Amino acid sequence: LSLQQDVIAGFLYAILILVVFHPVVDLIDNFNLTYKYAPLIIITFEMTAVETVEEQLAGLRIARRCVPSEEPAYLLDIDTSTPAQPGSSRFVAVSCSNKSIRVYDRETLHFLREYSGHPGVLSGVRFARACDSVVFSACSEGTVKCWDVRSATQKPVQVFSGYPSNVFISFDVSCSDLIVCAGTEKAEKDTFLVFWDARGITDCASTAKEPLGVYSESHNDDITKICFHPIEPNLVVSGSTDGLVNVFDINKDNEDDALMSTCNSDSSVSSLGWSGQDYKQVYCMTHDEGFCWWDMAQLDTEEPITLLHVLDVRESVCAENHGLHYLVGGLYHEKAGKLFLIGGTSTGNIHLISCSTDGLSLVGTLCGGHSATVRSFCWSPTDESLLTGGEDAQLLLWKPGAVERSLTKKASLKISSSVQKRVRVHHTSLKSRKK
Questions:
Q1: Which of 130, 175, 137, 184 is closest to 157 using CA atoms?
Q2: How far apart are CA 434 and CA 270, in angstroms?
Q3: Average pLDDT of the segment spanning 340-364
Q4: What is the distance between the alpha carbons of residues 321 and 282, in angstroms, rounded to a whole number?
Q5: For residue 167, with 0-12 CB atoms within 10 Å meaning exposed, 13-18 middle and 19 or more buried, which class applies?
Q6: What is the per-residue pLDDT across 376-424, written as a single tens digit (0 to 9) for each?
Q7: How far apart are CA 13 and CA 315, in angstroms?
Q8: CATH says 63-400 is which class?
Q9: Where are the WD repeats (predicted)?
Q10: Domain ranges of the chain
Q11: At what angle do helices 2-21 and 38-58 cross, to 10 degrees?
């Protein structure tokens, strides 16, 4: 019986390899070869999954394009809501260079409402996980505000106030929606990570919430980026113009104990995030287009934690004739277990770059959408789609193999061109803030 089972198993393996690899392995001679090459099958399946994802990313096409606003502005940050119930509406929130937040329907990109009149520059937007209509925004005048996009009122449902000297330039919300954290510009000799308790956001709109506390010793310059762990609400990573990327466990009693790791990017941090299985890796991009990638799982081992360090991605990635002018951020694809970078050109081409410990490689280029620098994006694993926003004031939805239905290509490019000319006035003031 055992022999029969072995023969049957060998036959099944043989058929499998014959389909996938038959140019490589001659299976007719000996069924035992199938066991020898069994690990190769697994590797091949993994490679096929990654290759499939790469093909899907390279095959993204414009599905929707929002109607340009009467007051064009750079689209600086994008986030989408997670539906509370299957089939319910999803929203897109965009922070703009004119100090407003615009909200759109996720599928149609129809404009829904706008929150304007912020007294300072916005540093991002984030939807709550548990309540799909609640969106947060941070402002340089020292507050984080919470809005209910289903409400017609222009007033926030909650205001998280910082200390008098705080100028917020980064923020994030924990995956449990319990903690809000904002990072400040350096004031005199101080720079802060400020924390608030976000519970009960819809019950106490009449008063501003005071901070739970601050971290003040781990960075010595502007905190440009904050990112909570996607599944561990107590973990947060911060990046700064001092070049440091710090990982904290905020469940600890004090800042010294909370600081789990400090990594040095050797440059000013522009973007960062989590990647890898169980999100145990941290990556960052720098303002001079460098890239660093670390494995936090190696902290307690003798193995080096640095997976990859590229001083200038523009020189290491061959983007054919289009060139690579800048990086926007990172995208961890859970299904493929693969980290990708998003970069682009000043003319609006978007480059998709694959990351491995061996280096970076170009996966594909998305053309014909934007006509100026792309400043923001948001990946949706649910439908494998990508939202992008840029200095041409355009919000685009890309899907695999899509056909654009909202505007004809010719008309949309004409609109983009006219908008771009009008928003150029913002270019100098925005660039002066870039470190």
A1: 137
A2: 9
A3: 95
A4: 31
A5: buried
A6: 999 998 889 999 999 999 999 999 988 876 454 434 443 444 444 333 3
A7: 44
A8: mainly beta
A9: 115-157, 216-258, 367-399
A10: 63-400
A11: 30
